[in-house]
Amino acid sequence: MSSNIVSSPIQYHNQKQLDYFGHEIKKTMIPVDSYYVNNHVEKLLEVADFSGKDNILEVGCGMGKFTFPLLKRGYKITGMDLSPFLLQQLLKYNDNRFQVPLIACDVLDAPLKLNNTFDHIIGFFALHHFHNLSVCYQAMARLVKPGGKIYFIEPNAYNPLYYVQILATPNMSWAGDKGVADMRKSKIQKATEYAELVNLKVCRYGAFPPFIANIKIGQKIEKQIEKIKILNPVLPFQLFEVQKPW
């Protein structure tokens, strides 16, 4: 743990996150071209009404695992992350292939010149690492244009396998991933209402982790599981969509 002295709960939280993500490369964050990664991207694009001209901010972009598939599809992405270390890794993996502006900061500290700049804001498995859902949604609300939408793909708090994964995986910890428990519609509803955002929608999908989802038989079984309505409340992935009023 860092010995840095911090002066507020937010700074303390952010320092913990930097300690968790900011010094070594986690294998699960490395950009790869796989069915699992592309399936999350396609789920977002099925719901989101993006055009090639839209200016999109990805909050918590990390090393670019989900950024690069969107850039390859021709979307204009600006990446934001708390960790300069992770953004440096993104630059290395980009290797000057795509034009992708990067911002190293907490979303609360986004420059004022970015207010009402983005057509949409997105995030992949980042929201559950935020220090305060209400104030972070409020911060994102000032960055997105009126009528713009904010989308996050997150773990489902009601899927018990996430808690098993946190306990069983050496490079995961409850301190780093405990926000999974907050990924409930009621919690997100409260946070988005605080930020004066409207029309919250939730879409659940998926069934398997990468090592199963990336094989053809796993993909076939997953599609069948998604069709079973009684299982929808515990499907492992969910997409939160919310809108800034016009």
Task: Walk me through this protein's architecture.
- The chain has helices at residues 9-21, 35-47, 67-72, 84-94, 133-143, 161-168, 174-177, 185-194, 210-213, 216-226, and strands at 55-59, 76-81, 102-104, 118-124, 144-155, 198-205, 237-243.
- It has 246 residues and is α/β, with parallel strands linked by helices.
- The protein has a single domain (9-243), classed as Rossmann fold (3-Layer(aba) Sandwich), CATH 3.40.50.150.
- Strand 4, helix 5 and strand 5 (144-155) form a beta-alpha-beta unit.
- Helix 5 (133-143) crosses helix 8.
- The radius of gyration is 17 Å and the shape is globular.
- The N and C termini lie far apart (44 Å).
- The mean pLDDT is 92.
CATH homologous superfamily assignment: Vaccinia Virus protein VP39
* Whole-number mean pLDDT: 92
* pLDDT < 50 stretches: none
Helix/strand order, N-terminal first: HHEHEHEEHEHHHEHHE
Biggest sheet details: 7 strands, mixed
Task: Kindly give the count of domains.
Answer: 1
How much of the sequence is in beta strands? 15-25%
Record keyword descriptors for this entry.
globular, Rossmann fold, 7-stranded mixed beta sheet, single chain, 246 residues, alpha/beta
Give the SSE map:
Blueprint: H1 9-21, H2 35-47, E1 55-59, H3 67-72, E2 76-81, H4 84-94, E3 102-104, E4 118-124, H5 133-143, E5 144-155, H6 161-168, H7 174-177, H8 185-194, E6 198-205, H9 210-213, H10 216-226, E7 237-243
Parallel strand pairs: 1-2, 1-4, 2-3, 4-5
Antiparallel strand pairs: 5-7, 6-7
Helix pairs in contact: 5-8
